[in-house]
Design goal:
Layout lengths: L7 H15 L2 E6 L4 E4 L16 H8 L3 E3 L6 H4 L12 E9 L2 E10 L2 H9 L1 H36 L16 H12 L7 E4 L6 H11 L7 E5 L5 H9 L17 H4 L4 E5 L9 H10 L1 E3 L6 E3 L3 E6 L3 H7 L4 H7 L2 E4 L10 H15 L6 E2 L1 H9 L5 H15 L4 E2 L6 H4 L12 H18 L7 H8 L3 H10 L6
């Protein structure tokens, strides 16, 4: 079950409307006892945990509604709370949000005046009944959100399998640059032009290539992928172009078709094209120009109708300059250039990938659905992800395997990440630039360390700067804060 935390916008609006109707302050806790919404006094405490020993904590523990209308006299309800002697609440009703045997959170109505106390006592039973209905509303919202999210997970689970069809519906991105890449890719799905996808390892180049293939008019024909860096140079030629019978010792007498033949009428995806040996580049160029291949050891030209999509993380322009990549081949493959983004350049997509990978590995490992606590989400947003989406997936897979509870936290991170701190880059920088890097690191640390802080006013106060100054610095340093 997806947690309340992922539905905070709905929950907060819901709470504010209820306060206007009922005349009581309202707070809602998630399964961890953290406030995900609040009105009045509790609006400033959103993101912070309800104190241990409080009425709402007790309600979550027992799974039963409860009420207190005199904190000092009703010691059995609140005596374990650290604010027991200082509490300003005159009356409180708490109701659990429960699905089956699982407690998803709790709703609390609070009064702070004598009039509110009297009103709550007078209408206690009807208010409890009303809260019961409200808890069902919140629960149904969570279930609805969870079903939609589960449908997305199922879509990704199907499409990311290499034997499954991938379409542009598989791409869900909040990043404008990635949306622009997808828009460009959609425009050329039926083109015969060669496509070169540029991007670092782990940024989804093959997934994009598959989407271009399966959205186009070649979708009913093969999509064949070859990693040019993964096959020894001595075998790569026969792998791509096939070989004739008796071409070499141990060869099949009837010969063997290569990837170009297998991809006929479809798409051949050549990943890591920058690692293609210089000796094979003229042969690939000839195929792209003449649309014919010749098997190794053969003397017969075979026509092929193949769309070629290439990809690389290398600087091909530099390779052309130093002679390690043919210039004519470069221009032949680089007709339609597309660029995938680093994960650190599309941080707004990290929460989605996090939820998807949690869903994926909980399903694979047959574990109950897990959530990530806000502090972990904030940490993941700030980390730079040198391994991109693939690294994030590996980290989530590790955490789901190793977690001892259904709430993932910082302590579940792999050891090599748990000790990470935002780096300060000083090489070649001016004094002003180094000061800026240091300032950025300090601000990051306030959102990475300690309790998860969604209250920017509190952070600004601790940094002894105005809230507007904090916002300007967050924007200046491109720091994404949940």
């Amino acid at each position: 079950m997806r947690g309340i935390t992922q539905n905070e916008e709905f929950i907060q609006l819901f709470s504010e409307n209820l306060t206007a109707v009922l005349g009581f302050d309202i707070t809602i806790l998630d399964r961890n006892g953290n406030r995900v919404s609040g009105t009045g006094t509790y609006q400033q405490q959103i993101g912070s945990p309800a104190p241990d020993g409080s009425l709402l904590r007790a309600v979550m523990k027992t799974g039963r509604p409860d009420m207190t209308y005199d904190v000092i006299k009703n010691e059995s309800h609140c005596m374990g709370c650290k604010f027991f002697k200082e509490c300003k609440e005159t009356a409180t009703i708490g109701y659990p949000i429960v699905k089956g045997s699982e407690t998803l959170g709790a709703i609390g109505l609070m009064g702070f005046s004598t009039e509110q106390k009297e009103k709550m006592i007078e209408n206690a039973e009807s208010l409890k009944e009303f809260l019961q209905h409200l808890s069902l509303v919140v629960e149904s919202q969570l279930i609805s959100q969870n079903k939609r999210f589960q449908a997305q997970c199922n879509l990704y689970e199907d499409t990311l399998n290499s034997n499954k069809v991938i379409t542009f519906d598989s791409f869900i991105s909040n990043n404008e640059d990635m949306k622009d890449v997808i828009r460009k890719a959609k425009r050329i799905v039926n083109s015969t032009a060669n496509v070169l996808i540029r991007g670092a390892t782990g940024t989804g180049k093959e997934v994009l290539a598959k989407a271009i293939h399966y959205e186009g008019n070649r979708k009913n024909h093969p999509f064949i992928a070859v990693n040019c860096a993964a096959i020894p140079e001595s075998l790569l030629e026969s792998e791509l172009f096939g070989y004739a019978g008796g071409a070499f010792t141990g060869a099949n007498r009837e010969g063997k078709a290569g990837k170009f033949e297998l991809a006929n009428n479809g798409t051949l995806f050549l990943d890591e094209i920058g690692d293609l040996p210089l000796s094979l580049q003229p042969k690939l160029l000839r195929v792209l120009q003449e649309r014919q291949i010749e098997r190794v050891g053969g003397n017969k030209s075979l026509p092929v109708n193949v769309r070629v999509i290439t990809a690389t993380h290398r600087n091909l322009e530099e390779m052309v300059q130093n002679g390690s990549f043919r210039e004519d081949l470069y221009y032949r493959i680089n007709v339609i250039p597309l660029h995938t983004k680093l994960l650190k350049e599309r941080r707004d997509d990290i929460p989605f990938f996090l939820q998807y990978f949690i869903c994926k590995y909980c399903s694979i490992l047959n574990r109950p659905y897990m959530t990530a606590d806000p502090q972990l989400e904030q940490w993941l947003l700030q980390y730079d992800w040198p391994g991109n989406i693939r690294q994030l997936e590996n980290v989530v897979e590790y955490m789901v395997n190793m977690a001892e509870s259904d709430v993932l936290g910082l302590h579940d991170l792999p050891d090599y990440l748990y000790q990470w701190q935002a780096p300060i880059h000083t090489g070649g920088l001016s004094l002003d630039e180094m000061v800026a890097e240091y300032e950025k690191s300090i601000i990051q640390s306030f959102f990475l360390c300690g309790q998860a802080r969604k209250d920017k006013e509190k952070v600004a106060e601790e940094l002894k700067i105005s809230l507007s100054t904090l916002y300007r610095k967050l924007e200046r340093y491109n720091l994404k804060v949940l």
